[in-house]
Design a protein that fits this description.
This protein is mainly alpha-helical and about 150 residues long. About 70% of the residues lie in helices and about 10% in strands.
């Protein structure tokens, strides 16, 4: 006999919401301990490390940040000497953000520690559970996106 319960949508949402808030708090603490003001500040440097110099608007769109949040994060990174802003020589309207050597060193060091912290968090899952988690998160994400159209 099956012991699977008929769990309602509102309960599933509550479980997802509480878990996501706890994970977000853990992630923010991890980022804060590495000297970053916010996840946005860390993410900007991580994005530039991966993609190289990028226009400001491209970074914001890729990271799903508002233009205000993006500007604030880039301003802080520039103030800390982690990035520079330069007008694109081919299109002066475009402002590219480039990681400085200081920024590259900061994100290289921080990324390793942060990745280790995330590994610790998700070590609660075995390999099969990790694969199932990814599958289920993608499934609910795609469904939510489709319903929002």
């Amino acid at each position: 006999m099956s012991t699977v319960q008929n769990i309602k949508g509102e309960h599933l949402f509550l479980v997802l919401y509480k878990a996501s808030k706890a994970v977000e708090t853990y992630d923010n603490r991890s980022i804060g301990e590495l000297g970053f003001s916010s996840i946005s500040d860390f993410a900007v440097l991580e994005y530039l490390k991966t993609k190289g110099a990028q226009p400001v608007n491209t970074i914001g769109q890729s990271m799903m940040l508002t233009s205000g949040s993006m500007t604030t994060a880039v301003d802080r990174a520039q103030k800390n000497g982690y990035v520079t802003r330069e007008h694109d020589p081919e299109d002066g309207r475009v402002v590219n953000v480039t990681l400085t050597e200081k920024g590259r060193t900061a994100i290289d060091n921080a990324f390793e520690i942060h990745a280790s912290n995330l590994e610790r968090l998700f070590s609660v899952f075995d390999k099969e559970e990790k694969a199932e988690f990814v599958r289920l998160m993608r499934k609910i994400g795609k469904t939510a996106e489709a319903l929002n159209l």
